[in-house]
């Protein structure tokens, strides 16, 4: 193996450091936005391309599964070839794929273009975090920057349905992809001017066997979740899927443990706090995506709302995330992650409980309250989870840890879409509310799991920090 020894990065001025953060946050806002902006438009896409609910799940999950599969490999590429270079390449791929989505003539073409978007997005998420960590040498400043970065990403996920509803009402469903073009152009210019090049301390080799096995395991897992209700959970195709998932997962673990430079550093999972926070990231994004998809089909199919009205209904969610995400980042910087995690768990669980008994005539005020509570929970969750996973590690491992955490988020998104879609696919408008109730119980359970993450964070916090 060739080891590259690099000089310490130049110290940037405070203004330049926070400008770098702003540029990376802009790009990450776009990645998060495209994870959820499509949800509210799925019924319109289905009518435009003449496809049913089960096929529409792939429009969302093609993006999230590919993104989740390639995040760690993209982080390794960035460490070897330069983070700014890979970041700019990701912006170009993402932009071209967005244009392809906007012009898609069929469902198959749209799903393929969404997968290409996922390829581009995978070059942005972990690389952006590594750029931010590299630009912030002071641990306290780095903690605040990570909080801001995670907050912006979380805010973009919550803002997606509102933005999508407004765009679809004004310009049709293709506009949710056209809107990416000017943002991509602006981001490319800003990166060229403000973001310095940086590399990892070691140039890691690509782990192609591990990459193939990880992609296979994730794709088949999501495929079984989406198609399981249709083909039957005990059918021969489903049983074959289970066998493939088990073999791919076991093979991935075997390959990674034997390689000197693995795709995913499984040794990080020996840290209980890292493992718990990674599972917390999965739980948060399962809850968010179950909420968004169930909300879309319940309001548009069961209650006859338009895409714009459905997107507007999520305004309390976006408001809660907007107000609480920066507050959460500040709390993490001053007091550590435990208190924001407790707040995140409590509000998320309360929002899910509000919807457990949802029916055809449930009060709009109760719906809005539930969305507000879930939005507040989501806003409080992202900064402490990211900080918990990355903050206790040396900067040299921040990129890998950030990639794993980002992978966990996208896995949660894909699983949430697949589970929610499985609950409501092939269900008539009259039965949608009742069919969605197990999904709201899942949202509640995800909120309660954040209390476990908070407990782990408390146990790992030094006594002096606890007393703060």
Automatic annotation (TrEMBL):
It is a multi-pass membrane protein. GO terms for molecular function: transmembrane transporter activity. It is found in: Cell membrane. Its main location: membrane. CDD domains: MFS_MMR_MDR_like. One of its GO terms (cellular component) is plasma membrane. InterPro entries: EmrB-like, MFS, MFS_dom, MFS_trans_sf, Sugar_transporter_CS. Keywords: Antibiotic resistance, Cell membrane, Membrane, Transmembrane, Transmembrane helix, Transport. Residues 20-462 form the Major facilitator superfamily (MFS) profile domain. The keyword Flavoprotein does not apply. Belongs to the major facilitator superfamily. EmrB family. This is MFS transporter. It comes from Streptomyces cinnamoneus (Streptoverticillium cinnamoneum). The lineage of its organism: Bacteria, Bacillati, Actinomycetota, Actinomycetes, Kitasatosporales.
